[in-house]
Each structure stands twice: as C-alpha cells, then as structure tokens.
Amino acid sequence: MGKIIGIDLGTSNSCGFVLEAGKPKVVPSAEGSTIAGKTVPSVVAVAKDGQILVGEPARRQSVTNPEGTVFKAKRKMGTSHKYKLDGKEYTPQQISAFILRKIKKDAEEFLGEPVDKAVITVPAYFDDNQRQATKDAGTIAGLDVVRIINEPTAASLAYGLDKQHTELKILVFDLGGGTLDVTIMEFGDGVFEVKSTSGDTQLG
pTM of the predicted model, to two decimals? Predict the structure, then answer.
C-alpha cells in the first residue's frame, strides 16, 4: 500500500507532508528552499510562451506577467469564478489542481514511489461547496482524496492532543500567509468538535 500524503493547500503557500518512522516530514519543493522555505507558493501562471508554471517559477515571473498569473485561488474555491489566462478560462479547482499536482510530483520524487492518495486540510469555516471544490481539485490532480480535515483539527492532532485522556477546550490561532483564523474546539471521547471559528480572509 502506497503512502498517503498530507497536504496543506494554503492561500499563499502550500505544502506536502509524509510520515517517516512515525514523524512528519515536509516534502521539499523541487526548486529547493526559496522565499517560501521548503513550501510551494500557491501561484499558477501561463507564461508568454504558453507554458504552465506552478509555485516558485510562477511567483518569480509575476512582476512581468501579472495578467497571466493567479494568486490566492483558495479564496474563490466553491464559487463560479473563472480566471482567464492566455485566452483560456480556468476554475479555482483547476488552478488549485496545478498546485496539488506539483506537490504530488515532488512527493513522488522525494519518496521514490508513486503517490495517489492524500488528506487535504481546509479552514474550519469552509462550507460544503468549498470542501467539495477542494476534493474536486485533488481528483483533477490525480489524487484520491481520502479525507478533508479542518486545519485546526489537523493542528491539534499534530500536537498529540488526541492522545489526552481528558476533556479539553482548545484555542487554535492560525496566522497564515493570506488569512487569519481563530478557532475554539472541544475534545472529548476521541472527537474534536469546532464550537466557533472566526477570522479575516484578507489578513495574513
């Protein structure tokens, strides 16, 4: 059975993770460490020659090709918005799929084996349409999305809070590259429940 990768499909930057000997490891971008560290800038572009660029190469050429570059497509997930690049229209799902496909490819090179399953995190405030759009993006990218998980739940799991044998009230403060989210959750009987979430989708 192949590995299932975890993917943080972020507003400004995205990242893949794999478990190695029980510990999470960041999937390094093929471009190496850049301004975004090991992560992949959530940027997609169609270059002047028609080539599709994703991540750092797309970010680098954005100053000279602003009309052919898409930033922060995550904010439009679940909507009917269309991006027009080089005379062709793309949905937010298609733009996000380019990013997910790159992370998939980077993970395969890192692991030396095919990757076809993923868990993708989304903000707690994402509605059903936004969650389905994220899953659709994974499908377009060639991934079987086995689960969509709330970002604050993923953060709590990463800190091992699910191993606590007590009821907990948890505050997760997520100052991301493009958004700010604050979520209050309760944990009990092995279940995380989001009680309230708020933030600013334009602040990061």
Answer: 0.90
